[in-house]
Amino acid sequence: MRIVGLTGGIGSGKSAVAARFRAHGIDVADADEIAHQLSAPGAAGTAAVVAAFGPDAEAPDGALARAWLRERAFADPSFRATLEGLLHPLIGRAIRDAAARFESPYGIVSAPLLLERGNLMHLVDRVLVVDAPEDAQVRRAVARGGVDAEAVRRIMATQLDRGARLARAHDVLDNSGPLHALDTAVAALHRRYLDLAAAGGNTNRPTEAGS
Q1: Distance in angstroms (rounded) separating the CA atoms of residues 79 and 76
Q2: CA 146 → CA 10, 32, 70, 97, 143, distances in Å?
Q3: H helix count then E strand count, the chain
Q4: pLDDT on residue 157
Q5: Whose C-alpha in 102, 164, 168, 176 is 20 to 30 A from the C-alpha of 121?
């Protein structure tokens, strides 16, 4: 089973790309989706974080108080390290379990911090970076709601810069245009990954799609 690691900065369009791979019948393990599951009421992540940080970490509905945790994490690096130490092992375990159940010709592991953390790199055969200009990232992230432009830029500051991320990519999907342009780009990558899976090999020749 060949596994592609899908990553990109906040607002780059990872979720939209992952959805299009799923539409082609490809199994996807998405770290963001798993993180939301683990922070739901009664979930293991919620229990661990509330036990560590107290009732302020829990929202009225029993889920994690994401806004409160985000503000504390940005203000206090030691708080952020403790929070990540609680959640990241749970997320990593869930991703590994999901990848072990993949049945499609190849699989996708989508993780925003794939390159920064490196703890999932042993799972993937190649890295696909979804790339977009930083201004577009900010605009898209703000449009999704829940964060303002300043918060988005603070998140971006914790991630690899654009050049460093691109330097580590095997494949780059240019998402600087409208989202509907992703259909053609993902279809081309899908055909490529099917060919690689059928050949049983993994070339490291970089490619770019969607430009």
Answers
A1: 5
A2: 13, 15, 11, 30, 9
A3: 10, 6
A4: 85
A5: 176
Q: Torsions phi, psi of 75, nearest 5?
A: -80, -25
DSSP SS3 for 12: coil
pLDDT tens figures, 147-195: 888 888 888 888 888 899 999 999 999 998 887 789 999 999 999 999 9
SS (H, E, C) 77-141: HHHHHHHHHHHHHHHHHHHHHHHHCCCCCEEEEECCCHHHHCCCHHHCCEEEEEECCHHHHHHHH
Q: Which amino acid is at 42?
A: G
Per the DSSP assignment, residues forming a β-bridge with 208 are 172
In sequence order, which residues have a C-beta less than 8 Å from that of residue 166 and are 6 or more positions away?
Answer: 129, 131, 172
